[in-house]
Amino acid sequence: MTEASTIKQDVARQLDQLPHELQRQVLDFAHALAKSFPKGVQGKRLLSFSGIMETEDIHAMNEAIESGCERVDINEW
After folding, report:
1. Is residue 2 classed as helix, strand or coil in its secondary structure?
2. CA 53/CA 60 separation, integer angstroms
3. Distance between the two ends of the chain, CA-based, in angstroms?
4. Structure confidence at residue 40 (pLDDT)
5. Confidence (pLDDT) at 42
6. CA-CA distance, 30 to 7, in Å (whole number)?
7. Where are the domains of the chain?
């Protein structure tokens, strides 16, 4: 038996002993944890993109970001 299945079984046993309202709180907590867990792609799936951009393009993008971002134009609105 894997550790994950043991944990699930332990949680289920504990949950069975709780009143309905506390079971609801556990479910809400589990949902909150699931939402806070970072989602994304494994790095090895991104390796195919390595080297597809030219160095000068990367520098131009970096310069545009640094010169145009994080500035507030108070007259914009």
Report:
1. coil
2. 11
3. 61
4. 86
5. 86
6. 14
7. 3-36+46-68
Look at residues 1, 30, 2 and name the one whose alpha carbon lies nearest to residue 14.
30
For residue 52, give the 3-state DSSP assignment: coil
pLDDT at site 29: 95
- The confidence score (pLDDT) of residue 19 equals 96
- Phi/psi for 2 (5° steps) reads -80, 160
Dist. CA 5–CA 1, nearest whole Å? 7
Q: What is the mean pLDDT of each run of 10 residues along the chain (77 residues)?
A: 84 96 96 88 89 93 83 73
Cα(15)–Cα(24) distance, rounded to whole angstroms? 10
The CB density around residue 23, as the number of other CB atoms within 10 Å, is: 14
